[in-house]
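Why do we bother with holo predictions? Because pocket geometry can differ from the apo form. Keep that in mind while you read this record for flavin-adenine dinucleotide.
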Amino acid sequence: MTEVNLMTEASAAPAVTKPHLPDAQTVTQVRHWTDRLFSFRVTRPQSLRFRSGEFVMIGLLNEHGKPLLRAYSIASPAWDEELEFYSIKVPDGPLTSKLQHIQVGDEIILRPKPVGTLVHDALLPGKRIYFLSTGTGFAPFASLLREPETYEKYEEVIMMHTCREVAELDYGRQLVESLQDDPLIGEMMAGKLKYYPTTTREPFHHMGRVTDNLSSGKVFADLGLPKMNPEEDRAMVCGSLAFNVDVKAILEGFGLVEGANSDPRQFVVEKAFVGDGI
Ligand SMILES: Cc1cc2nc3c(=O)[nH]c(=O)nc-3n(C[C@H](O)[C@H](O)[C@H](O)COP(=O)(O)OP(=O)(O)OC[C@H]3O[C@@H](n4cnc5c(N)ncnc54)[C@H](O)[C@@H]3O)c2cc1C
Ligand SMILES: NC(=O)c1ccc[n+]([C@@H]2O[C@H](COP(=O)([O-])OP(=O)(O)OC[C@H]3O[C@@H](n4cnc5c(N)ncnc54)[C@H](OP(=O)(O)O)[C@@H]3O)[C@@H](O)[C@H]2O)c1
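The structure, written out:
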């Protein structure tokens, strides 16, 4: 893997890590997308098994030598030999104020106990699946879009991702563009994936909140799809709490019922973060 490090700030302050931590993994790639978004890859513990869409706890040692851990969706698919993460940079955030400075060769802590609701097992079979996200809520879908099961289970996959500005869509756009050349799923996903990125505060070819584009029927009209219905459609939702609450109400309005690992239904929801946003 080549290191792509576009922002000069990345080399400013070293991350607070110590070699040979328990559960340590080594950073293999870092890429900064905007001044508030970056992605990175780390080595994968040999024992780690997870389902595409799940999250784990990762972090660094704090100044007192204690682990400072946060939940992170694994953005890479279950078959990948490394693990990828897509992260916010919270300027005064306890973890990400330091994590944003990691470089290739640094170590992070990764607790190998994956969990989460955004997994195929939590949904009943259907014809189409909608992945609905804002901001870093794209991360679990970066995993699921690279998961062969997604294309085996569904005839159509609709990826909706909304950010305020165009540059904030770049990680998702480049990932979607890379899929057609992926030797594992390029052929499987041909003609199945409909990508619908939108912005809300900067001009773009498609604009508007996910909620508004679902409620108005605009996304269905633009993509030539029928209105969402519980017989054919399934959905996974990942964004801020406000986004999740609003999308859930809309999906229920279409007749879809929320499911869980233990009780598969028509849609599942997971928080992209706790709080109101930075
Ligand atoms: C199930 C789950 C999965 C998560 N997956 C990811 C992920 O894949 N990528 C990721 O960047 N974060 C993810 N998070 C959020 C993550 O756990 C941390 O909150 C984030 O890394 C910031 O940590 P911090 O210590 O710097 O600040 P914190 O003290 O954790 O957060 C400070 C404030 O920043 C805001 N904030 C935190 N995270 C975000 C975010 N992602 N987008 C916008 N505002 C945010 C919130 O208002 C929060 O109160 C996830 C959270 C949960 C619960
Ligand atoms: N994004 C930036 O450029 C930026 C820069 C600096 C600081 N911040 C701060 O960071 C925090 C988080 O910003 P963010 O852009 O990552 O996340 P966000 O505020 O959750 O917005 C992300 C996207 O989700 C949309 N959205 C928000 N609430 C929604 C809801 N209930 N239903 C449907 N769509 C919804 C937003 O549309 P709307 O635009 O219509 O709200 C936006 O397109 C904010 O407090 C902000 O002040 C953001």
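The pocket of NAP (ligand 2) is lined by residues 36, 134-135, 162-165, 168, 200-201, 209-211, 240, 242-243, 246, 277-278 (CB under 6 Å).
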